[in-house]
Design goal:
321 residues, alpha/beta, Rossmann fold, DNA polymerase, domain 1, 2 domains, 14 helices
Length: 321
């Protein structure tokens, strides 16, 4: 996730301050020489810092947003043939590794969620603050848009989506209002409908009333949670001994998946019942680099408020694995 600077429509918008840059660079530069995959390349701020910090590393950058790849290609050009870029979703890690003949990886980074340039560009339709089409596709080649979900799901399915991906306490009220107002064409229309559906007392706290709804719809459009566990499994399987996988998550659903997958890989799968031992044959593949999730500093949050939700976790592949 990158820090915004302008709403210009060029790919250069993606080149802004990445979240927890020093922490990510420290974790992923201190790995064996080889290849690091940045599975969510964005503006390549993390990627550029990792390459600068360790001359023994090359980088494979994946992104499903062509605008981001164009900007990243320009930013990473000084690193020459140490960089390979692919227009791919982040669950394409294993496929890309096979295409490039990579037997193992020294590291892998996931910086999840939507980037600030995507939010700030009204034509992408991600933001409740900017009036634009109901799109929200990170990959413009995808066929399902936010317009399809907002105008196509029945009330029950829409309410379930808002609860599942947005933890929205007023999901049923919002879903009912959306169905009654169809057809809905723009982000401004949707934001106004959601705002009016939320009780007045709830509007006065917790930020914009439409934030959770927009988040939930975006996650569904891009299948962000559905593909995350598989992508993490691919990354962990490809890690070389002492290789590391690092994840920045911004949504509780994302962070729960990362936490569970990392703990499982570390051999810390909980028993089926408190009075039973862990399941047999469950051996650790990785070690947790620290307990819990690290958060950005107060100074970083003051500088870049969108970083506040970030939760950073990382693991290292065990030599025995």
């Amino acid at each position: 996730m990158d820090h915004p600077a302008s709403s210009d429509s060029t790919g250069a918008d993606f080149a802004h301050e990445p979240v927890m840059l020093a922490e990510v660079t420290e974790v992923l530069s201190d790995v064996p020489d080889g290849y690091v995959v940045d599975a969510t390349l964005g503006g390549a701020g993390h990627a550029a810092a990792i390459l600068a910090a360790n001359q023994g590393l090359s980088l494979v950058g994946l992104d499903q947003d062509q605008m981001a790849l164009d900007a990243a290609g320009t930013r990473l050009a000084p690193h020459g043939d140490r960089v390979t870029l692919r227009h791919r979703r982040f669950d394409g890690i294993a496929e890309v590794a096979r295409e490039l003949g990579l037997g193992s990886l020294s590291g892998c980074l996931f910086d999840l969620g939507v980037s600030s340039p995507q939010l700030d560009l009204a034509s992408r339709g991600f933001s409740f603050r900017n009036d634009g089409p109901l799109d929200m596709r990170m990959d413009q080649r995808a066929t399902t848009t936010a317009h399809d979900l907002v105008n196509g799901l029945d009330e029950g399915a829409l309410a379930s989506l808002l609860r599942r991906h947005g933890d929205e306490p007023h999901a049923r009220r919002i879903a009912r209002a959306i169905v009654a107002a169809r057809p809905i064409v723009t982000t401004a229309e949707l934001a106004e409908i959601v705002r009016d559906a939320v009780p007045a007392a709830a509007r006065r706290k917790g930020g914009h009333p439409a934030r959770r709804t927009f988040q939930a719809i975006r996650i569904e459009v891009n299948q962000e949670l559905e593909i995350l566990d598989d992508a993490l499994t691919q990354a962990l399987d490809l890690l070389a001994p002492e290789g590391r996988c690092a994840v920045l998550a911004y949504h509780s659903g994302e962070d729960r998946i990362v936490k569970r997958r990392f703990r499982d890989a570390a051999g810390e799968r909980p028993p089926p019942r408190p009075d039973l031992p862990p399941p047999p044959g469950y051996e650790a593949e990785v070690r947790l680099l620290w307990r819990g999730a690290r958060k950005p500093s107060a100074a970083e949050v003051a500088r870049n408020p969108r970083a506040e939700a970030a939760r950073f976790r990382a693991v290292e592949k065990l030599a025995a694995a």
